[in-house]
Amino acid sequence: xxxxxxxxxxxxxxxxxxxxxxxxxxxxxxxxxxxxxxxxxxxxxxxxxxxxxxxxxxxxxxxxxxxxxxxxxxxxxxxxxxxxxxxxxxxxxxxxxxxxxxxxxxxx
Length: 108
What we know:
With 108 residues, the protein is mainly beta. The chain has one domain. It contains one helix and eight strands. The strands form two sheets. It has a four-stranded antiparallel beta sheet, with no helix packed on it. Strands 2-3-4-5 form a four-stranded antiparallel beta sheet, covered by helices on one side. The relative contact order is 0.20.
C-alpha cells in the first residue's frame, strides 16, 4: 500500500471523530486535522519521556505526505503553520491531557 493510500485510509478511519476544534485526544486515538488546504491525522502515544505526538499532513489525494513528530511534556505545545493565511494547528499538553485546536496565524 502506498503512503498516500495509507494516509487516506487513516484519515477516513478517524473522520467520524470530527474536526479538531479545541478537543481532547486520548492515547492511540487518531483525530482528523486540517491546516488550510492540508489535511491529515494526529495521534499520540505515551512514552517514558513524554507524549510522542505524530501529525501527518498532505494536500489532496496526490500531495506528498509530511510527518511531524514531537515529544511533549506537561505545559509544552507545538504549533504547525504554513506561510499562507491558513492559520495554524496547535497541539498542547496540560498534565495528562492533550488538546488539539486550530488557531489564527496572528495569535502565534
